[in-house]
Amino acid sequence: MKLGISSYAFGWAVSESRFTPDALLDFAVAHGVPVIQFGDHLPLHTLPAAELDAFAARARAASVEIEVGARGLTSEHLATQLAVCRRLGARLLRFVIDARGHEPGVDEVAGVIREALPALEKAGVTLGIENHDRFPCATLRRLMDDVASEHVGICLDTANSLGAGEGIHEVLMHLAPVCVNLHVKDFAIARLPYLMGFTVTGRCLGEGMLPLGEVLETVAPHGRCGTVVVETWPPPEADMAATLEKETDWAVRSVRVLRAALENLTTSTTIA
Prior knowledge:
By secondary structure, the protein is of the alpha/beta class. 44% of the residues lie in helices and 19% in strands. It has one domain: Alpha-Beta Barrel (TIM Barrel), CATH 3.20.20.150.
C-alpha cells in the first residue's frame, strides 16, 4: 500500500482559496509522498484542459501519482470525472455519493455504477465509493457484493461512519475486504462538561483514538487497497494564520506517522 496525501489534509487552506493543485503536488514532492488525492472541494474538472495536461506532466516528472475525487454520484458526473482521470492518468476515482439536493437510494446508486462499468474497465480506473454519513456500512457492503466488480470498491474513511453511529471496528468488519483506498483520519471523542453528550474532534494522526496499526493490519491482507491517504480535521485556532500553520504542521507530522506505520506493517509481513 502506497502512502498518499489528500487535499482534505488542507481543508482550511482550500476554504480560504490559499491552496491549489500545484500546492498539493509541491507538498508531496517536498515530503517524499508518492500519491496525491484530490477531494471534491478542489475540483479538477473545472480547470482548462491545457492546465490539466501541464499538471499531469509535472506530476509524472516528479513520479507522483494522482487520484481524483468527486461528490454527487450521477451518471453524467461520473462520466465527467472519468474523463479527468483519463487525462491525468489517475487509476482511482473516489466518490462521495451524496451532494446538496442529491441523496439517491441504494438501487439507483447500483444502477449508476453498473452503467459505468464498461467505461471504468476500458480506462483501467477503479471507482472507490466513500463511506459517508448516510449509508450504514452493511448497506455499502451489500452494494459492493451486488455490483461485484474488481473496478469498484470502498474508499474507507476511518472517521466518517461515526456520523452513522458506527465505530471503526464495525467499519472494518464490513468494509475492509472491499477497501480499495484508505483515508486515515484521527479523532478524539470526549464527553461534554455537563455530561449529556459527546464531541468528536480531529487529532493529528497518532495522537487520537484511531488504532492505526490495527486498521492497516486488517485492510492489507485482503490485497485490494492500493493507497493509504492522510486526511485531517484540525480544529481552528484564534486566527486563520495560526489555523493554517497548525494544518500544515499536522499534515507533515501525520505523513511521518503513517510512513512509519506502513514501514512497520511491511516489516511485520516480511518477518511473518
